[in-house]
Amino acid sequence: MYEGNAEEIIREYDRYVAKHVSEPFPIVLTRGEGVYLTDIEGKRYLDFWAGIATVNVGHGNPMVQEAVRKQMDELVHCASMSYYTLPAIDLAKKLCEVAPVQPCKALFLTSGSEATDVMTKVARRGSGKHKIITLFGAYHGRTTGAHSIAGPTATYHKSPALGPYAAGAIQVPAPYCYRCVLGLVYPECGLQCAKMIEAFIEHGTQGDVAAFFAEPISGVGGIVTPPQDYFKEVKKILDRHGILLALDEVQTGLGRTGKLWGSETFEVRPDIVTLAKALGNGYPIAAVLAAPNLTDALKPGDHYSTWGANPVMCAAASATLDYITENRLWENADRIGQLILRGLRELEEHYGLIGDVRGRGLMIGVEIVKDKKSKEPGPEECAALRRSCADKGLIVGTGGWYRNVIRVQPPLVIKEEHVDEGLKAFEEALKVVDSSR
């Protein structure tokens, strides 16, 4: 076990570990418990980001940890896609019973990025068509396939140096009402961003569209939250053209939006769903849920994952799902989320840094601007606010098209007293950054 201060550990990390995404936040974390994290120097932080919307049932959840310990004593690995295992069938049955896709089968994988790749294979095999429609600013993972169908954001650009990217993706305007690229205002816009998808299909695709793929609420894109009727309008268009609706529920799924599924939040039924992050509560597992006629269209050799359906990961996911459903954590997410939204919107009225507060349940975004009137993005102020929050003992995330959105996505086991603690720290951080401008 390492000893020493954070600066020494960070220097050693920089020497031996490749930082392939971005500079890590300068905290050396050593422990997580419930809704709190502790660093190497003993400082405790209230975690309002949950490992990027991952530890939905809290850090070190006893029910999940016990399931993992028990399974580790029985069977850790056997290349589960080559054998039948009990944890895989147990998890698949539980997921399929509550899935928004009915009937369905589950394919188990190792990450959200891999799930995106498999989603495209399922959609293309099942439909016999090839193009995938995604949204401006979409993020669906970092494998080359996932990178190819997504749109660039400030956080995850699409560098020419990494190209050429795979063909077959079409991006359409996102339902980003605060920064509508069409210059319209909801509801007077009549959901034009949704309706124009039909024009893309009819005039820009030769009819060869397999699926429309989107997050119910865009996570990395900045918690872009569509109008309530957006997905219902999109689904009407897709149904007219025989196109599958595939939803990325990696961040929205399993209770985060105030319902068990993000699709349920927006009252729409998808044909395919991808899961990861919260499914394992920190253990690496992902899934694709789809109708049997779609999953069974895959041919031998279309995909294989050495650690897909790993027994230990399936045991962790099964316990996580049990904990969420038995405690109906989506109800807590809805109730506590409303408290956080109310508190943040009160701060919005008093601080010029906050341009917009949005979200559903415990998936909340605070868009930071240099000026409310011009809406000029404030990425520097956003980064400073995140640092100041950490100084005050609060962990938040960042994201957005311009790196100017604070992401509030705490564990779903959060309580009212944590809301008061978090909002107090956030306002103190706001004061620090606002006074320094």
Q: End-to-end distance, in Å? A: 41 Å
> What is the count of distinct domains?
2
CATH class (first level) name of the largest domain: Alpha Beta
Largest sheet: number of strands, sense, barrel closure? 7 strands, mixed
Instruction: Walk across the major sheet and give the strand order.
Output: 4-10-9-8-7-5-6
Strand content: 15-25%
- What is Rg? 21 Å
Percent helix range: 25-40%
Number of strands: 15
* SSE series: HEEEHHHEHEHEHHEHEHEEHHHEEHEEEH
Taken from the alpha-carbon principal axes, the silhouette is: globular
Structural class: alpha/beta
Total helices: the number is: 15
* CATH homologous superfamily heading of the largest domain: Type I PLP-dependent aspartate aminotransferase-like (Major domain)
Give the mean pLDDT.
Answer: 94
- As for the CATH topology of the largest domain, it is Aspartate Aminotransferase, domain 2
In terms of per-residue confidence, which ranges show pLDDT below 50 for 5 or more consecutive residues? Answer: none
CATH architecture level-2 label of the largest domain = 3-Layer(aba) Sandwich
Describe this structure in words.
The chain has 437 residues and is α/β, with parallel strands linked by helices. It folds into two domains: 6-60 and 328-435, Alpha-Beta Complex (Aspartate Aminotransferase, domain 1), CATH 3.90.1150; 62-326, 3-Layer(aba) Sandwich (Aspartate Aminotransferase, domain 2). The chain contains 15 helices and 15 strands. The chain has helices spanning 6-16, 50-53, 62-72, 86-98, 112-127, 144-149, 192-195, 197-204, 230-241, 262-265, 292-295, 311-326, 329-350, 379-391, 416-435, and strands spanning 29-33, 36-39, 44-47, 105-109, 131-135, 169-172, 209-214, 244-248, 272-275, 286-290, 354-360, 363-368, 394-395, 397-399, 405-408. The strands form three sheets. It has a seven-stranded mixed β-sheet, with helices on both faces. Strands 1-2-3-13 form a four-stranded mixed β-sheet. A four-stranded antiparallel β-sheet has the order 11-12-15-14. Helix 10 links the parallel strand 8 (244-248) and strand 9. Helix 4 packs parallel to helix 12 (311-326) and helix 14 (379-391) crosses helix 15. The radius of gyration is 21 Å and the shape is globular. The model has no long low-confidence stretch (mean pLDDT 94).
